[in-house]
Amino acid sequence: MDRKAPIGVFDSGVGGLTVAREIMRQIPNERIVYFGDTARVPYGSKSKDTVTMYSRQIIRFLKTEGVKAIVIACNTASAYALDTMVKEFDIPIIGVVKPGAKVAVDTTKNGRVGLIGTDATIQSGVYDKYIKELNSDIEVIGKACPLFCPLVEEGMLNDTITNQVAERYLSYLKDKDIDTLIMGCTHYPLISSTIGEIMGDKVNLVNPAFETAIELRKLLFRENLYNQSDVDSPSLMYRFYVSDAAEKFRRFADSILPVDISVTKQINIEQY
Ligand code: DGL
Questions:
Q1: Do residues 56 and 88 make contact, with C-beta atoms less than 8 angstroms apart?
Q2: Are the C-beta atoms of residues 91 and 63 closer than 8 Å to each other?
Q3: Which pLDDT score, from 0 to 100, does residue 230 have?
Q4: Domains of the chain, each with CATH number or no CATH
Q5: DSSP H stretches of helix in the chain
Q6: How far is the CA of 76 from the centre of ligand 1 (A)?
Q7: Beta-ladder partners of 266
Q8: Which of 24, 90, 104, 214 has most Cβ atoms within 10 angstroms of its Cβ?
């Protein structure tokens, strides 16, 4: 495999950009092909079979772009489809849940960890499983926040409606004595200031993206895939694809990434 080949990163929409952003910061030598499934977002209310089928189509597409490894930058797809995808495809694939669980275990002092995510992620119990594998004394208190993803997709990051919705969801966690809160959906770091204000300074927010980029770098070294050559201009380093409304995505991506996105292409993901 060519070390200069890109990393494939995907999510149901813009959320995975929080992971792509972290990879750009921590491993600037690596090229990225990002796919946002904007035609089929949200994944969090869909079944395991559907999310697995979507993930399979996306990985098939990313392979046509010559990627050398894949990051499933979506907690829902990591929870539902990672194990199956690892078995089906012959390239390294990592998700965001295991790295997020690890940071939460390292962060909590009182052993009480809150988790917010999509219905699918909370119901899958996958965070509890990984956390308990690392430390069986830790208690995980989950709360699904299904409206956060559409609010973020609409760009309502600093909006009174988002504040009200967050107040309503997070009130459930406020009296649970948690000292750590996992943002278990890649869309949520985009509203972390709202979440942080409501939860207060005593609760540490965990963004699994940071640790995911560290895991990716380790994986690339281990597999002899790390790109040693010089960095090109962002337009050569990063490519973006979506399944719907490319211009809307491009504007959003431009506002949150450290580089300017010149082109986002729309593709028909159903054909893969
Ligand atoms: N950003 C995704 C996640 O981390 C999916 C949100 C959704 O599509 O419902 O779970």
A1: yes
A2: yes
A3: 79
A4: 7-95+210-271 (3.40.50.1860), 97-207 (3.40.50.1860)
A5: 17-26, 48-64, 75-88, 97-107, 119-124, 126-134, 148-153, 160-174, 192-199, 208-222, 234-237, 246-256
A6: 6
A7: 242
A8: 104
Residue among 92, 102, 97, 103 at smallest CA distance from 226: 92
| Span 252-261, pLDDT tens digits | 999 999 988 8
* Residues of the chain below pLDDT 50: none
* Residue-level pLDDT at 10: 98
Ligand 1 pocket test target in 14, 76, 122, 182 with most atoms within 8 Å of CB = 76
For residue range 10-23, what is the model confidence (pLDDT) as tens digits?
999 999 999 999 99
For ligand 1, the distance from its centroid to the CA atom of residue 249, given in whole angstroms, is 16
Pairing of strands 93-94, 69-72: parallel
Round to whole Å and give the CA distance between 181 and 214.
20
